[in-house]
Specification:
By secondary structure, the protein is of the alpha/beta class. The protein has 2 domains: about 5-95 and about 355-455, Aspartate Aminotransferase, domain 1; about 95-350, Aspartate Aminotransferase, domain 2 (3-Layer(aba) Sandwich). It is built from 15 helices and 14 strands. The protein has a 7-stranded mixed β-sheet, with helices on both faces. The chain has a 4-stranded mixed β-sheet with strand order 1-2-3-13. Strands 11-12-14 form a 3-stranded antiparallel β-sheet. α8 links the parallel β7 and β8.
Length: about 450
Amino acid sequence: MDIAKRGKGNPMRASATAKEGSNALGRGGNISPTEQALFDDAARFFPGGALGGNALAADARFVFDRGDGSRFWDASGNEYIDYVLCSGAMFLGHAHPAIQKAVADQVSRGTHAFAYLNETAIRLARRVMPHIRCAERIRFTTAGSDSTFHAIRLARAFTGREKILKFEGAYHGVHDYAQLSTAPKVSGNFPHGVPDTAGIPAGVQDLMLVAPFNDPETLASILAEHHQDIAAIIIEPIQRILHPKPGFLQAVRELTAKYGIVMILDEVVTGFRYGIGGAQGYFDVVPDLATYGKIIGGGLPVGAVAGRKDIMDQADPTNKGKPGYVYQNGTLQGHMLGCAASLATMDVLEQPGVYDNVFAMADKLREGLQKVFDRHNLGILVFGEGPMWHMLFTDKVPQDWREVIATDTKRMATFEAELLRQGLFILPNNRRFISIRHTQDDLEQTFEAADRAARIFKR
């Protein structure tokens, strides 16, 4: 297949700027003057020349220009197959026509109306709540971090307790309460956490407890000692690259119910990815609160907190000034463009066969990559379940964070950089995603690119 003829926009842009004899995918050393100027400006404008907390190696970085489906092009015209997908937000792929139309139609009617009622937000609530098993009430936010922050506040107010328990290696956003033991390089002693960033007050650290994922016995021991102080347990049903052991999520549910602790299921990643009912349907677990972001926004900044009405109704604004009222607000909550994109996303995901197809494609991806790596005797294990996939230098699927960091992560980082140079965009040292628009052609070219990367890596 001629890669230059794929997609919309300017179909000849990639081939027009690619080097003579270079691979169809990847940078191949090609950086245009336009992209270099953008790099130079970014270095002057942004800390570390980056928009956020992630940066790529200097010889593998790029400036995103446009995307279509499962692929995107950088400012030099180089083409990539995307397995990052905006950290999983682009489950429908880039520039999905249904989302384009929905957003364009909404723009003509208005973009936002502050955090007051608007028709689009109400329609979205009506649409998503039947799919969220715990949802008796819902409140829209602007991102997953926003959602987890507000869920924690609601839980503290509801229980009258202050401490929160999370699991080592879990990511729940960027706020202070989340940035404890998210990716510790040095393990702490449970239940004490390790700050992931400077600037977190010691008092916040004292309010957070940490337990090992997939270890219900240790969790039960911690709760037996500290339950009277714990307002909530917040848990990712699939913690980055760690899948729960059978019964683990149910054990967390039972323990939280036993001690009157609020269970917050962080579905920012899993929500609407593992079926229309997310992890609650996939794993058959019903929390007290659930948090959302990524897919629910259709690529625009929409998140949500959903859950029991007795907890959620603490945020009823008619109760301002009364004991027990919980303030929850944001200028861009219920943003009409985002809600329009969300409704279009639901239109697509509710179509028959969507999830069967993406699950099958992900299985083929994992199987094909494993064959490539085994052929080169790299010692890499490809694993995962559903529309996420992972790989490590290991011979067994890890069960907790400490088993992840016990693998050769530095060597993996080197290999991942080569994969990127070959045109496969993956999130370094983290989960990878697949969209509903990845095709068999994408997979075949992925295997070819992985083979090239493996040959270079072995030199």
